[in-house]
Backbone:
């Protein structure tokens, strides 16, 4: 049988006390968040390359290598998550990743000039991008783990929605808007713009995803202990 991210069969979670609307809202929110993730990461890549070439006079090949090097930190992040994944729930890992991205994002502002500013720009990318990939990867997995066996929120439809949200939406709009913002409003305005989207994403995920996940985790623990009590409450779908 299809199982949740913590191993409990999903049939055990879909009880009369489980609000169908909250599950579906969470799935849609996870898809939307991955679109934002694609928007932010593709924008970071394009804007960083543009800043390196225009502000720090780095060639196209050099800027490409420097932007690519920021992804190396992602390997270390994945190793840390793999080793300590049992310490936090899925909701807590998403929170931690987004909070870390919000902390490192201001390094991309233009408060330091010259070579130190270039280093801070790349350091900011090196931590923001892996954190967004981590949160996005968890969000993709969660959206599929809660897919319905039939209906418009089945696993195939969710996969298509994720690809459209990330590739058609986020990755098409992100680079163009990022480069336009840097070119017309400046690097600091762009960095603050990205920071604001990160903070909004954190609030968005906390309200519509993390709280629902925490509620399901409590239900799973109650099911495992055999103390889960069914009621006659049932919520409608959206």
Residues:
């Amino acid at each position: 049988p299809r199982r949740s991210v913590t191993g409990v069969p999903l049939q055990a979670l879909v009880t009369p006390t489980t609000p169908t609307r909250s599950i579906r809202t969470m799935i849609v929110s996870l898809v939307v968040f991955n679109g934002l993730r694609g928007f932010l990461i593709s924008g970071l890549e394009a804007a960083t390359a543009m800043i390196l070439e225009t502000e720090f006079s780095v060639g196209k090949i050099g800027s490409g290598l420097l932007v690519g090097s920021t992804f190396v930190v992602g390997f270390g992040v994945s190793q840390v998550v793999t080793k300590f994944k049992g310490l936090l729930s899925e909701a807590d890992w998403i929170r931690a990743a987004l909070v870390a991205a919000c902390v490192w994002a201001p390094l991309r502002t233009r408060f330091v000039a010259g070579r130190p500013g270039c280093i801070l720009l790349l350091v900011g990318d090196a931590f923001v991008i892996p954190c967004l990939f981590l949160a996005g990867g968890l969000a993709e997995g969660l959206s599929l783990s809660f897919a319905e066996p039939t209906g418009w929120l089945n696993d195939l439809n969710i996969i298509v929605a994720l690809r459209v949200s990330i590739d058609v939406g986020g990755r098409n709009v992100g680079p163009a808007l990022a480069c336009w913002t840097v070119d017309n409003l400046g690097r600091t305005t762009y960095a603050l713009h990205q920071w604001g989207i990160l903070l909004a994403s954190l609030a968005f995920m906390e309200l519509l995803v993390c709280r629902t996940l925490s509620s399901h985790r409590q239900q799973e623990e109650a099911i495992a202990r055999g103390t889960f009590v069914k009621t006659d409450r049932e919520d409608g779908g959206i």
Confidence is low (pLDDT under 50) at residues 1-18, 231-238. The chain is about 75% helix and 0% strand. The two ends are 25 Å apart (CA to CA). The CA atoms of residues 202 and 217 lie 20 Å apart.
